[in-house]
Design goal:
The complex is a heterodimer of chains A (245) and B (209).
Chain A: H1 2-22, H2 30-39, H3 41-75, H4 77-92, H5 95-106, H6 110-133, H7 138-146, H8 151-189, H9 197-206, H10 210-239
Helix pairs in contact in A: 2-10, 3-4, 3-6, 3-8, 3-9, 3-10, 4-6, 5-6, 5-8, 6-8, 8-9, 8-10, 9-10
Chain B: E1 14-18, H1 25-33, E2 50-53, H2 65-69, H3 71-74, H4 82-88, H5 104-116, E3 122-126, H6 134-147, E4 152-157, H7 160-166, E5 169-174, E6 179-185, H8 194-208
Parallel strand pairs in B: 1-4, 1-5, 2-3, 3-4
Antiparallel strand pairs in B: 5-6
Helix pairs in contact in B: 4-5, 7-8
The chains are: A mainly alpha (245), B alpha/beta (209).
């Protein structure tokens, strides 16, 4: 903890020194970012709320689709092979490249950021859930076979609960990616009505208001951090007890 | 792994299957229990009410002891009262605990309770004592011995002394392909004198060596 704090303070000091050397047109100093944040509090808050909603929506969609695809892949080897190219495609397709297309289809506003966020978050959720469903030991699988359990019962009583810890740690990764995906979507798909963090970053950079640009970046980072910490707390609360932690 | 294999499992007796590791005795047990289907052919003559205790307790970590023992009932198996099964293994005071809150020996007993709740006619034990210390081992062994002769027990173990202490019959197998090398009746009186146990161990070792 002490070293983390020291490193943060050191980084802040280095930033400040660099900012004094370059001047505010290239790099704003910490107080300049703070001033910009105070001057634009309303827009920043609005943007944070909007981007948070898009991110949470994106995570929800990614979780639903990722878990559904993972269950399907476990249920049937044929389905597993059939969805493989699509899961890979979703992972490798550059979001930046398809965001303009999404604007054509969905128009400016909430939709684009939610979809790009969901695309970014899908793969870690799917892959964590698929791994988690295969997590139970051979003994537990044999136990369910002994009692002639149906596949549905095996899924419900064994596979899904066993997948939960892995899924939650996948969700922590997916949370950060959903923020990135949503912001990329907002670069392209938001025109300032309503204000989003992605829009603020682009707008502030164009108008050479680097203080605001930094403030919006920090707000986005804070959002990702909070998501990470929140999912981590759920993980410890729900799953930690199972393993005596 | 095994072909046209015939094995006597006398009703109400404890048969211990011993043999070096890797000879296929665990696979045999799973085949008999119907946990794994045979590649070809059929397994016949095994009663349909079966219990299985694995080397690992194999409890669901998100369920309390009581909910773990209730699992067979949830899966549609006809069971006795869950709390009665828990009481039979002496864990009545721990029924609401999660497996992580139980000791290794308690977890193994919980696993036994889950096997017993379905009122098995035949109980399969796969190295049930392997991970336990001496006292817990004797504890669990006496619970198993008390089930006889109401339940037929088949126990796989690599520990010849455990087999000689507990079993009515010791079956030495070798493989693969799996075959019976020795089928030795021991008797049904328990506990056994150490000299008697040593005599059984010596007889099996004489054949196995």
């Amino acid at each position: 903890m002490r070293y983390t704090l020291l490193a943060l303070l050191g980084g802040m000091g280095a930033w400040w020194a660099l900012a004094l050397w370059t001047g505010p047109l290239l790099l704003p100093s910490p107080p300049e970012v703070l001033t910009a944040a105070v001057e634009n509090t309303e827009r920043l808050l609005q943007g944070t709320v909007y981007t948070s909603l898009a991110t949470i929506g994106a995570l929800g969609i990614a979780t639903f689709l990722g878990v559904a695809a993972a269950i399907l892949a476990w249920w049937s080897p044929e389905a597993s092979r059939a969805i493989l190219p699509y899961t890979v495609l979703v992972q490798v397709v550059p979001i930046v490249a398809i965001a303009p297309l999404l604007v054509v289809w969905l128009g400016y506003g909430t939709g684009v950021a939610t979809v790009t966020g969901a695309i970014a978050a899908f793969f870690p959720v799917y892959s964590a859930c698929a791994t988690g469903l295969r997590a139970p030991s051979q003994e537990l699988v044999d136990l369910f076979a002994l009692y002639r359990a149906s596949r549905a019962a095996e899924l419900r009583w064994l596979r899904l609960p066993a997948a939960l810890p892995v899924l939650l740690s996948g969700l922590r990764t997916a949370g950060g990616l959903a923020v990135i995906g949503a912001i990329v979507g907002e670069f392209v798909g938001s025109n300032g009505f309503p204000v989003s963090l992605g829009y603020l970053v682009v707008y502030a950079a164009r108008s050479a208001n680097l203080g605001l640009c930094f403030a919006a970046i920090f707000a986005a980072a804070l959002l990702a951090l909070l998501l990470h910490a929140g999912i981590g707390a759920i993980e410890r609360g729900a799953v930690g007890r199972w393993y005596g932690r | 792994m095994l072909e046209a294999f015939d094995l006597d499992l006398p009703r109400g007796q404890l048969s211990a299957i011993v043999g070096r590791s890797g000879c296929g005795k665990s696979s045999l047990l799973r085949l008999l229990a119907g946990v794994r289907p045979p590649d070809r052919g059929t397994v016949s003559g095994v009663p349909s009410r079966r219990g299985f205790v694995f080397q690992d307790p194999a409890l669901l970590p998100w369920r309390s002891l009581r909910e773990n023992v209730a699992l067979p009932g949830q899966l549609g198996v006809d069971t006795e009262a869950v709390d009665a099964a828990i009481a039979r293994v002496g864990l009545a005071d721990h029924a609401d605990k999660l497996p992580a809150e139980l000791s290794g020996g308690q977890r193994m007993r919980a696993s036994l309770a889950r096997a017993l709740v379905s009122r098995p006619e035949i109980l399969f034990l796969d190295e049930p004592f392997a991970a336990l210390d001496g006292a817990t081992r004797r504890d669990l062994a006496s619970i198993v011995a008390a089930l006889l002769p109401g339940v037929t027990v088949v126990m796989v173990t690599h520990d010849l002394a455990d087999a000689a202490r507990l079993a009515d019959r010791v079956v030495l197998v070798d493989g693969p392909p799996l075959r019976v090398v020795l089928d030795l009746p021991v008797g049904s009186e328990r506990p056994r004198a150490p000299s008697e146990v040593a005599a059984v161990v010596a007889r099996v070792e004489a054949v196995g060596a």
